[in-house]
TrEMBL record:
The lineage of its organism: Bacteria, Pseudomonadati, Bacteroidota, Sphingobacteriia, Sphingobacteriales. Keywords: Membrane, Transmembrane, Transmembrane helix. It comes from Mucilaginibacter robiniae. The keyword Transmembrane applies. The keyword Transmembrane helix applies. This is DUF962 domain-containing protein. It comes from the Bacteria. The chain crosses the membrane at residues 27-49, 61-77, 82-99, 111-130, 142-159.
Length: 166
């Protein structure tokens, strides 16, 4: 890449910054984007995974969420290694939270799928409310690529405040 070329991740962040200038919307994004990601991983976790004999004793460690996490981290790694490492740590924390919800379900709590769908609805509603606060009328909720980049954008903002290059 030539020194004058802008990395794709920087282009995404520039687009995100241009479409998220309202302070209230930025606060909503800071809450709803992680909530959206958590709920999607929770839904993937709740989908039954087939028993694969060749995995042996490791069969319980693989599920649809682990495959989703692997794909996300690979995509993020291609965009920015540093951001992908931080995101991996965050996804580990999300996984721990989902395991706790799953254990709560086992002791009589709500089903993981129900909790995840509820959080998903709250997150999407929050994102839509935030979008209405912006002067530009667009439907970012339907732009999946920017939704994938959203959590990285939040991490990028935190790293930028700490003067850490990404």
């Amino acid at each position: 890449m030539k020194p004058t070329e802008v990395r794709p991740i920087d282009q995404y962040f520039q687009t995100f910054n241009q479409t998220h200038q309202n302070k209230t919307n930025r606060i909503i994004q800071c809450i709803c984007l992680p909530l959206l990601l958590f709920s999607i991983i929770g839904l993937a976790w709740a989908i039954p995974f087939p028993h694969l004999g060749f995995l042996g004793t490791y069969n319980g460690y693989i599920n649809w969420a682990s495959i989703l996490i692997a794909v996300l981290i690979y995509y993020y790694l291609k965009l920015s290694p540093m951001l992908s490492y931080v995101m991996l740590l965050i996804l580990f924390a999300f996984s721990y939270g989902i395991i706790e919800l799953q254990q709560w379900e086992g002791t009589g709590g709500p089903a993981l799928a129900f909790t995840s769908v509820t959080l998903l609805i709250i997150a999407v509603a929050g994102l839509i409310i935030g979008q209405r606060k912006e002067k530009l009328q667009h439907v970012l909720v339907l732009n999946w690529k920017l939704l994938l980049i959203g959590p990285l954008w939040l991490i990028h903002l935190l790293l930028k405040k700490a003067n850490i290059k990404y």
